[in-house]
Amino acid sequence: SSELTQDPAVSVALGQTVRITCQGDSLRSYYASWYQQKPGQAPVLVIYGKNNRPSGIPDRFSGSSSGNTASLTITGAQAEDEADYYCNSRDSSGNLPVFGGGTKLTVL
Amino acid sequence: QVQLQESGPGLVKPSQTLSLTCTVSGGSISSGSYYWSWIRQPAGKGLEWIGRIYTSGSTNYNPSLKSRVTISVDTSKNQFSLKLSSVTAADTAVYYCARASELGMDDYFDYWGQGTLVTVSS
């Protein structure tokens, strides 16, 4: 099992707000980065650091952190946001990268 | 714009060594505060970090794979490579190469290759 825990599946109605969470002890010390992956495609970075979006990522994507939980929030979810989302941070030693198990987002 | 491209055999026999190369274009593999990683994903499953190399040659590996993994870099060719020995069917996956950037104490994978499917089968 991963050192970062994500809910396997989440759903959201079109246009509504959804929060995808990632839990792990290392998140008390390190920020998570978040990746969107659509079927048959490579993951794409959507959030990194405290709350930074790479160029080209819509501002409906935002990140936050509290205690041992990091969150990715999509405000006004669109049909094209339906994808798998993975968090990434450090392992419990704080030395090596580790991914969460992923959350499948369904937009209804 | 940095681009990464994986290459290597798509079929490997059990007990043999899987070898992949990642070619980096659009920037020098030696410049900047980056490291270079391999990440894999079995069909229908999540992402697994395999290991990384800094352009100094320093490496770190996933403890679960450490005994079988070697990552190397060839700065003259702007490439880095993965070798995974004694493969079994459990090593069948899409293998990605990726660049990681460092931001303070954190890092993140900002550029990824398209991925290459490696099947372990006789």
Keywords, separated by commas or semicolons:
heterodimer; A: six-stranded mixed sheet; B: 122 residues; mainly beta; seven-stranded mixed sheet; four-stranded antiparallel sheet; globular
Largest interface between protein chains, with number of residues from each side: A-B, 25 and 24 residues
Distance between the termini of chain A: 29 Å
**What is the percentage of strand-forming residues of chain A?**
over 45%
Beta strands of chain A, count: 10
Q: Report the sheet with the most strands of chain B, covering strand number, pairing sense and barrel closure.
A: 7 strands, mixed
Helix and strand element order of chain A: EEEEEEEEEE
Could you say which overall geometry of chain B the principal axes of the C-alpha atoms support? globular
Q: How would you describe what is shown here?
A:
- The complex is a heterodimer of chains A (108) and B (122).
- By secondary structure, chain A is mainly β.
- Chain A contains no helices and 10 strands.
- In chain A, the strands form 2 sheets. In chain A, strands 2, 4, 5, 8, 9 and 10 form a 6-stranded mixed beta sheet that branches.
- In chain A, strand 4 and strand 5 form a beta hairpin.
- By secondary structure, chain B is mainly beta.
- Helices cover 0% and strands 55% of the residues of chain B.
- Chain B contains no helices and 11 strands.
- Chain B has strands at 3-7, 11-12, 18-25, 34-41, 48-53, 59-61, 69-74, 79-84, 93-103, 106-112, 116-120.
- In chain B, the strands form 2 sheets. In chain B, strands 2, 4, 5, 6, 9, 10 and 11 form a 7-stranded mixed beta sheet that branches. Chain B has a 4-stranded antiparallel beta sheet with strand order 1-3-8-7, with no helix packed on it.
- In chain B, strand 5 and strand 6 form a beta hairpin.
- Chain B is globular and about 40 Å long.
- Classes of the chains: A mainly beta (108), B mainly beta (122).
- Chains A and B meet through strand 8 and strand 9 of A and strand 5, strand 9 and strand 10 of B.
